[in-house]
Amino acid sequence: MANRIGRRILVMSGKGGVGKSSIAVNLAVWLSGQGRRVGLLDIDIHGPSVPKLLRLEGTRLTAYDEKIEPVLYGDSLKVMSIAFMLSNPNEAVIWRGPMKHNMIQQFCDGVAWGDLDDLVVDCPPGTGDEALSAVQVLGTVDGVVIVTTPQDLAVVDVRKCVTFCKQLSLPVLGIVENMSGFVCPHCGKRTDIFPGAGGEQIAEDFRVPFLGGVPMDPTVAQSGDAGKPLITFEKDSPTAQAFAHVFQPLLGEPKQDTKQKETSNMKIAIPLADGKLTAHFGHCGQFAIVDVDPQSKTIRSQMVLDPPPHEPGVLPAWLAEKGVSLVIAGGMGQRAQMLFADKNIEVIVGAPVDTPEALVSDYLAGALQTGDNVCDH
Ligand SMILES: Nc1ncnc2c1ncn2[C@@H]1O[C@H](COP(=O)(O)OP(=O)(O)OP(=O)(O)O)[C@@H](O)[C@H]1O
C-alpha cells in the first residue's frame, strides 16, 4: 500500500544539544494524543536519540512486502530511527554523503507508514547534507519548526536555519525557545540563565512566528532518561503545559511566515536597464521600487532610484532600508540571494525582461512566469 502522508513537519536546530529531539518527540506524542495519525522519523544519523527518549532501544525491525514496518509507540505513534538499524547503539556512524542520502531515502520511501496525518522529522543539527537530503527525499515539506536556546550566540545558528528554509522555500512554522529560563522547583522563581535577545526577539527580527518557550526543567531530562515524554509523563506540570502551548498552533493549518501575512503594504524592487528588468542584477543601473497593496492587488506608486555603488551586501542593505520585501530579478548569484535572505527579502529569479508595471501586475495576479536563473555565476 502506498504511503499517504498529510503534513511533513521538520524539526531543525542550528546546532546540537538545544533540545531538538526532545521537542520532536514531545510534539509527535502530543499530536498523537490529539487523535491524529502520526509518524516520527529520526534522521539524526550521528546522534539518533528518539528510541532512547521513547524507550524503544533494541527493537528489532521487521519488513513486509519489501517495506520496513515502523515501530509502534503506544497505540498509534509510528516510529522509525537509524538507531534501529545499528547492531551496537554505541557504534559511530561513519558514512559518506551518498550513503547518508540513500539511508534517508530508504527511511522515507522504504517504510510502511501507511496513512498519516503528520510525519514529524527529527533532523540532524545544522543545515548540512542530511537536512538537505531530507528535504529532497521528502519532496514536500509543509513546515519547519526551529528550536533554539535564548543566548545571543544562537542568533547566528537560527539565521542559518531561516536562510536554509527561505532558500528552499520551506515555510517556517515558528521558533521554539527551549531552556527558556530556569524555574526553581522549590520556590517557583524564574531565573534567566542565558543573556541575550531571546527567541521572541529573534523571531521578530527574522519575521517568522514565535511559538513560545519551554523552561529548563530537570524533569525534561529525567523523563527523557526514563523514556517517557514529559508531555504525558507529567502532563499537568507547568513545563508540559508550556510544551502544549508551543504545539497548539501546529495543530491546524501550518502558520505562514509573518512576512507573507503582512498584506496591507508591500514594496517590490526590480533591477532596471532602459526602463525594463535587466537579467544582469549585479550591473543594473537603476531600481524600480513599486509600492503595492497586495490585498486589492493594485499598484499604489512607483519610483526609480539610482543604487549605491555595487559591493557585496550593499544592495540588500539599501533595499531593506527602503522597506523592500521582494526583489523580482532575472539572474542572481547564490551569494547575493543569501545576502537578501539575511535581510528577510524574498527573491524571485528567472523573471522575463519586461516593464516593472507588467511584472508586478503579473506577480499580483499570480501569473508571473519564471524561467532559468540566467546569470547565476
Ligand atoms: N527544557 C529542558 N530542560 C532540561 N533539560 C532539557 C530540556 N530540553 C532538553 N533537555 C536535555 O538536554 C539534552 C539534549 O536534548 P536533546 O537530545 O533533545 O537535544 P538535541 O538538540 O536533539 O541534541 P542533538 O544535537 O544530540 O541532536 C538531553 O539530555 C535532554 O533531556
From TrEMBL:
Key words of the record: ATP-binding, Hydrolase, Iron, Iron-sulfur, Metal-binding, Nucleotide-binding
GO terms for biological process, alphabetical: iron-sulfur cluster assembly
Residue positions binding ATP: G14, K15, G16, G17, V18, G19, K20, S21
Domain Dinitrogenase iron-molybdenum cofactor biosynthesis, first and last residues per copy: 274-363
Domain of life, per lineage: Bacteria
GO cellular-component term (any): cytosol
PANTHER family: CYTOSOLIC FE-S CLUSTER ASSEMBLY FACTOR NUBP2, NUCLEOTIDE-BINDING PROTEIN NBP35 YEAST -RELATED
Subunit structure: Homodimer.
Listed name of the protein: Iron-sulfur cluster carrier protein
Source organism of this protein record: Anaerobaca lacustris
